[in-house]
Amino acid sequence: MAYAYDDQNIFAKILRGEIPNKTVLETEHSLAFLDIYPQAPIHILVIPKGAYVCFDHFAQEASDAEIIDYTRAVGEVCKMQGVEEGGWRLIANAGEAAIQDVPHLHVHILAGRPLGPMLPKV
Ligand code: 5GP
User: I need a surface site. Which of 18, 54, 72, 103 has the fewest CB within 10 A?
Assistant: First the structure.
């Protein structure tokens, strides 16, 4: 499958410095920043700097260096925030069914309150 990346998405604009963000961590290939509408006391987004639409796109096409950097960036944010203490959740929405709002790969790191079940029961 070919992934079509829209470089006008809001996270591409953040990466180009066109709109501000509250940066938590910046590495060679990744950026972590506060979610503008936090859903938990800790709600941090981690994005790769490369133009990847979603996690599967990244996993299939990113370089080993990007993947290592991104994974380590998530780990470093978790360490900085001490989330292992009370537990935390990592979410990566992709595409329509998951209601991905911003078409640039991002994972949500959520912590600081009880997070409930993974999905509502149907
Ligand atoms: P998604 O639904 O795509 O998984 O999550 C997108 C996330 O991006 C949402 O949690 C939303 O609050 C966040 N968001 C949207 N626009 C901005 C923005 O301009 N700045 C920041 N920091 N977060 C944003």
Answer: 18
Q: Which of 15, 10, 21, 77 minimizes the C-alpha distance to 50?
A: 15
**Residues classed as catalytic:** 106
Predicted confidence (pLDDT) per residue in 91-102, tens digit: 999 999 999 999
Domain annotation covers residue 2:
no
Structural domain including 64 reads 10-111
| pLDDT exceeds cutoff 90 at 120 | no
Query: Measured from the CA of 34, which atom of ligand 1 is nearest?
Result: 22
Tally the domains of the chain: 1
Task: Give yes or no for residue 16 having a pLDDT over 90.
Answer: yes
CATH of the domain at 62: 3.30.428.10
Who lines ligand 1 at CB under 6 A?
A: 10, 21, 33-37, 93, 99-102
In a domain? residue 102: yes
pLDDT in tens, 103-112: 999 999 999 9
For residue 76, give the amino acid letter: E
115-93-59 Cα angle (round to 5): 120
Residue 52 maps to a domain: yes
